[in-house]
């Protein structure tokens, strides 16, 4: 049952549950070629979430800023291609959320271990802000913080569980959001961690 948490956003509880084992295995294969790493930030901090990417572009951050890059800075190699299982779930979720033409160029894979968090931020490094972001949650549950268009707007809390998918488009696309520190636990599919996939369109289609 789709749930609208905000205008432009659609939550699809359990939408990826049947594909979860395949998605987790594919994420593992990606990480064998492009390892999870803790990125630095322009402010000089190191992120508690470990990240890697698949696709023609990958999200990267260091002292000089946030940006999308075509090669993995750790190896100089292109990011691994987006697996077919990933593309299928992203396309069907985007369609369910009202975006039948979604063509992602990047999947950012976030790995949360106990205590890891993502502070309140906007995703605005993409050149195409008309395209939605599709997210898939796998493994341990997390508390998702969803604010408004201004950093100091009130924040609502949602639980994101294994197999939950969300489509963030329209007025929700530039909302501030984050993840509260992960509570320790063991999930049968991922063990002691949570994985999140975010599918992103970076460049504008002609
Ligand atoms: C709402 N990831 O990678 S997914 C991120 O669980 C990120 O790892 C979180 O925020 C995670 O940038 C949250 C849900 C999500 C992703 C992107 C959004 C919600 C969003 C972009 C705009 C609005
Ligand atoms: Fe985000």
UniProtKB/TrEMBL annotation:
<keyword id="KW-0479">Metal-binding</keyword>
<feature type="domain" description="Fe2OG dioxygenase">
    <location>
        <begin position="103"/>
        <end position="203"/>
    </location>
</feature>
<keyword id="KW-0223">Dioxygenase</keyword>
<dbReference type="Pfam" id="PF13532">
    <property type="entry name" value="2OG-FeII_Oxy_2"/>
</dbReference>
<keyword id="KW-0408">Iron</keyword>
<dbReference type="GO" id="GO:0035516">
    <property type="term" value="F:broad specificity oxidative DNA demethylase activity"/>
</dbReference>
<dbReference type="InterPro" id="IPR037151">
    <property type="entry name" value="AlkB-like_sf"/>
</dbReference>
<dbReference type="InterPro" id="IPR005123">
    <property type="entry name" value="Oxoglu/Fe-dep_dioxygenase_dom"/>
</dbReference>
<keyword id="KW-0560">Oxidoreductase</keyword>
<dbReference type="InterPro" id="IPR004574">
    <property type="entry name" value="Alkb"/>
</dbReference>
<protein>
    <submittedName>
        <fullName>DNA oxidative demethylase AlkB</fullName>
        <ecNumber>1.14.11.33</ecNumber>
    </submittedName>
</protein>
<dbReference type="InterPro" id="IPR027450">
    <property type="entry name" value="AlkB-like"/>
</dbReference>
